[in-house]
Each structure stands twice: as C-alpha cells, then as structure tokens.
Amino acid sequence: MASLLFSADNPLVEAARARRRLTPVWAVFLLVPLVTITTFEFKQALTYWLLFSGYPSPTEEPGRAAAALVVELLVGFAAVVFLLWLWLRFFERRPFSTLGLERTGALRKVLSGALFGLLLTAATALLLTLLGFVVVEGKAQGPVGLAALGGVLFVAVGWAAQATSEELLCRGWALQTAATRYGTPVGVLFSSLVFAIFHLYQADVGLLALTNLFLLGVLLALYALYEGSLWGVCAFHAAYNWTETSLLGFDYYGEEAAGGVLLNLRQVGPDVVTGGGVGVSITGGLAQTATILLGIAILLLFVSRRPTATTATMKNRVR
C-alpha cells in the first residue's frame, strides 16, 4: 500500500521534475506567508475598499454580501495563481500544469472529490447530531432553505476558487518541493504542516484546530498522491467548506454564510467536541478529528483493495 502512495514515480511528484531549478524547502516557509499576506491585503482592498465600499451585511443585503464574498475569493485565487505562476515560470522554469493539473480524468476526479468532501463534513454533522450537540436555529440572519438556493449555489464558485488556491500552494507546490528532495512521506508531512501554519493568521485557531488542520492536510495529501493530481483534492476542499457553511449553516469564523443557507444548524455542546461557533468552526473539535481519521482509514483501505488498478494508472501517467 505504501509503495502505491509514496512511490518516487508517483505522477504528482514526477511532474515536478520538469523544473530547471528546485526551490529550497526553507524558502516555502517564507514564501507561503508572503503570498498569503500579500493576497489577503490585495483582495480586501480591491473587494471591500474599491468595489463594494464596505462590508455588505448578509442579513440586510444577502445578494450583495454573496457577490462580495465570491469576488473576494476569486480575486484571492487570481492573485495566488499569478504569484505562483511567476515563481514557477522564472525561478523553477516549469509549466504551471506540472503542479498536478493534467487533464486526464479531470472531471471524474472533481466529481468524486466533491462527493468525498461533502460526505466527510456531513459525517461530522451527523456525529454531533447523534451526540445531541446540534440544534436547528429558530431564526436566521439571512435566507434559509429554497429561498437561499440561488445564493448557496452562487457562493460555491467562490469556495471552489479559494480551495483551489490553497491546494495549489500546499498539495501542489509545497508537497512537490519537499518530496523531490527528501521523499514523498516527508512531502506529505511538510505540506500538511504548511497547511496548518497557513491558517495561523486567522483568528481563534487553537491547538486542537491546528492539529485537525494538520490531519486534514495529511488526508488531502494522501488523496492527491492516490490520484496523482490535484483535481480531486481541490473539489474535496471546496465541497468541505461549502457543505459546512452554505449547506449546513454552521458559523464560519463566527459569521453566517453570505448568500443564505439551506439548513441553519448550530453547535450547542462543549467547544472541545463541536469546535464552537468561532475559529474554524467544526474543524476545531474532536468530532472532526474522529471523522478525519476515519477518512484517512477509508482512503488507505480503498487503496489496499485496488493496488493493481492504481499501479497501472501510475505507470501510464508517468510514461
């Protein structure tokens, strides 16, 4: 099983060998925060200072708030892609597609990744519900149910952009950088650490939340290596965020989702289990720890039951 995921010929790792110059691993720790801060300031200034002249209220202006969120996330995505493209083009001197964006089987991977992300988040919500730690809020600040369907679908575009930018940095560039120097297992751990640190600039991210983010990074890295590309993990990440906020209605960083929610759920149990209503929401609780570990176990079990198909896929992709 390990040979299938951690092979030196894994297509995701192999693709990085097209570079002329390899980025030092220490440079990733400097460049990821730099890209993150630069992108954050740029998207905030362009979206809320210039285009929307402030922060539209999800309660009073749900449509405008949804539009602002989508614009913000699209601008952030464009900035990350541009900065990363510059680095790959002029320093490493390799095509942007070598981050794991080859077209073979892309649609299938996107659909399966989105389903995986949706089910993992729903499993956490189900576990919390069975424990009696979830209630339906009686009054919402914005549209709920079918009245919110348009907004819920619209903001999915923004979540897709945001998730893809993080995956390009972490499961693409960071994983490849460490894996090509020190081996794929180190690449998994390094990219997961970068992913957890990536969220430190966000408020109320405690030790348990950082641990869960690291474990989620491991799950995503293993999934990317299993498929040999980023398409599935980009869709997984987008569906994970969208399900938690727009579909289930859990507060994200203490705020309700812009554009409305299909369900309007709230955690009522101990924060250590539920994650609470601030920080990274359900990602900060032990219930999420359990479902992430379950996701890793399911993925490894799935790999062990399909060794022949996976090996054949790898050989064909590297060729």
Describe the overall structure.
The structure is a single chain. The chain has 319 residues and is mostly helical. It has one domain (2-318). The chain has helices spanning 2-6, 11-14, 25-51, 62-92, 106-130, 149-182, 184-198, 207-227, 231-247, 271-274, 286-305, 307-318; strands at residues 134-136, 265-267. A two-stranded antiparallel sheet has the order 1-2. Helix 7 (184-198) packs across helix 8. The radius of gyration is 19 Å and the shape is globular.
Overview in brief:
The chain is an all-alpha fold and 319 residues long. The chain has twelve helices and two strands.
Primary descriptors:
two-stranded antiparallel ribbon, globular, disordered C terminus, 319 residues, mainly alpha
Describe the protein's topology.
Layout lengths: L1 H5 L4 H4 L10 H27 L10 H31 L13 H25 L3 E3 L12 H34 L1 H15 L8 H21 L3 H17 L17 E3 L3 H4 L11 H20 L1 H12 L1
Antiparallel strand pairs: 1-2
Helix pairs in contact: 3-4, 4-6, 5-9, 5-11, 6-7, 6-9, 7-8, 8-9, 8-11
Q: In percent, how helical is the residue content?
A: 55-70%
Q: How far from one another are the termini?
A: 21 Å
Which residue ranges are poorly predicted, with pLDDT under 50 across at least 5 consecutive positions? 308-319
Please, how many helices?
A: 12
- Return the domain count: 1
Strand order of the largest sheet: 1-2
* Strand segment tally: 2
Strand content: under 5%
Coarse structural class: mainly alpha
Order of helices and strands: HHHHHEHHHHEHHH
Shape: globular
Tell me, rounded to a whole number, the average pLDDT: 88
Give a short account of the largest sheet: 2 strands, antiparallel
Q: Compute the gyration radius: what is it? A: 19 Å
